[in-house]
């Protein structure tokens, strides 16, 4: 439906038949009080087919439902299970908390706006929407960085590493949110701004203004919230996989000298720790690229080039970034065997295959436990 509540598909079809809407643009349905926030760039595009609004609204609604339920379960299980209340898992809980709030604040407003086919919540909520999306996105990204750094510290440094305490973990959580708030309130005070984008159903940073202030924010923000975190995660997992591969090689050589097939039980040797860890590392980095790179490309295209950024492409790139809140519970929660055991106990109907009774080692962070057992066996 349109803002006025009239059926819009028939109107759109008629306009399309007479020359794709005549002089109508994607901005025409925007309320008058919002027009000062809309960049002149968007006036060149005709209104989207209402079917796209329906598809986008449905997609963001489904993603929001999955993310809110999934991250809510991760928070509940990690906080209510004694064995999972460890300092390292405080970071996992923080990630779930950030992703939970991300879709709680992003999904319902966008569903409403897709229904009305434009932004109908006013200028203040547009700024708030853009700020929340940036805040929780930044919080999730830097939480993933600290998780990678913690695993690097435990697995690569091993016994020489300084153990993560609850106090240190809480301090890192505080640093994450302090950085996130600092970056995301900057546009509110004039360093860039939050504006409607794409098909006018969502708001984000202004990547179309060519002034130095707007461009500088996009550049600096992308360095500290995309490139630097990505490099840290790649660096951490690269050395983690290397360390585990080296250990596995030593274990195989030692087993060969002792004339045994393996120093581990047959169950543990079915899937090597290096393979498990490599898969999780690859999944982490791949999902990072899938989620955030399209939106980064959109931002850079806006401030650097004159290439056409269509409303439909823009909003889909934004949706990909929001979808990261759905991936994280799977990567950081369900890949944890103790989490699966707790999930089976609390929600048995959601578990297809029961985890082994003694499967108490995290695939991602529990490699050090395997290492310690191997060394004691040696």
Q: Can you give a write-up of this model?
A:
The protein has 378 residues and is mainly α. Helix 3 packs antiparallel against helix 4. The chain is built from twelve helices and two strands. A hairpin with a 4-residue loop joins strand 1 and strand 2. The chain has a two-stranded antiparallel sheet with strand order 1-2. It is elongated. The N and C termini lie far apart (70 Å).
Keywords:
378 residues; mainly alpha; two-stranded antiparallel sheet; elongated; disordered N terminus; disordered C terminus
Sheet having the most strands: 2 strands, antiparallel
Kindly state the mean pLDDT as a whole number? 81
| Overall 3D form | elongated
Strand content: under 5%
Computed over alpha carbons, the radius of gyration is 24 Å
Termini gap: 70 Å
**Strands of the largest sheet, in order across it?**
1-2
What is the share of helical residues? 55-70%
What's the helix-strand series? Answer: HHHHHEEHHHHHHH
How does the helix and strand content classify structurally? mainly alpha
| Total strands | 2
Unreliable stretches = 1-7, 17-21, 266-271, 354-378
Count, helices: 12
